[in-house]
Amino acid sequence: MKDILKIGKYELGSRLIVGSGKYKDFKTTKEATLVSGSELITVAVRRLNITNPDQENLRDTFAGTNVKFLPNSAGCVTAEEAITTFRLTREAT
Q: CA-to-CA distance for 20 and 29, rounded, in angstroms?
């Protein structure tokens, strides 16, 4: 029997959570995440680039994979700033 991690409506076959901030570029981030077998990657909301279609986008890099994003508030200094950032991201996506 496979050990499944359930978080809300999501079922993950791996309990490994990878952080996206340590890699030199999005291609390396994707390669390392896929090789690790992780299905969940933490992403600083500010790195997602959801507003400028002319710039590289981490969401596009992972399109077609089974990897889910777990947003974090890296770069925010106060709780209010983090909440505002997540609300803006929710509206933009």
A: 6
